[in-house]
Amino acid sequence: DLNPALKRIGWDPPKVMNAAIMWALVSPEWMEALDGWIGIEQALGDHDPDDVERNPNWLGLLERYERRFGNRPHTTMTALLYDQGRVAAEAIANAPVETGAGIAEGIERIKMAPSTLGGPRTYIGFGAEDHRGYRG
């Protein structure tokens, strides 16, 4: 946790981090540890109907979720975990054989899968030497 160290030395710089900030939702302690930080890799906006940067995959997930459960989970983790589940299912479906190596090959066959997390042009893709996942 950097916040106490920064406070101790009296320095309050802009605090920016990657998608790892999503894990702050796991517990109140983690939320407090990341208080004041800005996450730059996720966009979820469904709050403004005139926002042209809305991700239609995220909006579709929210609508389906609301029909089934009666509420709209406005959390980055919802989109992230949905995408991770889709990648796992597609990796198994793409696997030539159901072993660890086969599923790894199945993941590497995923190319340009629409992403729920991120902006409307974000997609998920992998390759033999590229395990990054999110792009765009």
**What gap, in angstroms, lies between the N and C termini?**
29 Å
* Biggest sheet overview: 3 strands, antiparallel
Give average pLDDT, whole number.
85
Tell me the helix content.
Answer: 40-55%
SSE ordering: HEHEHHHEEE
Q: What does the radius of gyration come to?
A: 18 Å
- Care to count the β-strands? 5
DSSP helical segment count: 5
Provide an overview of this structure.
This protein has a three-stranded antiparallel sheet, with no helix packed on it. A two-stranded parallel sheet has the order 1-2. The mean pLDDT is 85. It has five helices and five strands, in the order αβαβαααβββ. The chain is 40% helix and 12% strand. α4 (76-94) packs across α5. The protein has helices at 2-8, 28-33, 56-69, 76-94, 100-108; strands at 16-17, 38-39, 113-114, 123-127, 130-135.
Key phrases:
136 residues; alpha+beta; three-stranded antiparallel beta sheet; two-stranded parallel sheet; 5 helices; 40% helix; globular
SSE diagram, text form:
Layout: H1 2-8, E1 16-17, H2 28-33, E2 38-39, H3 56-69, H4 76-94, H5 100-108, E3 113-114, E4 123-127, E5 130-135
Q: Gist?
A:
By secondary structure, the protein is α+β, with helices and mostly antiparallel strands. It contains five helices and five strands.
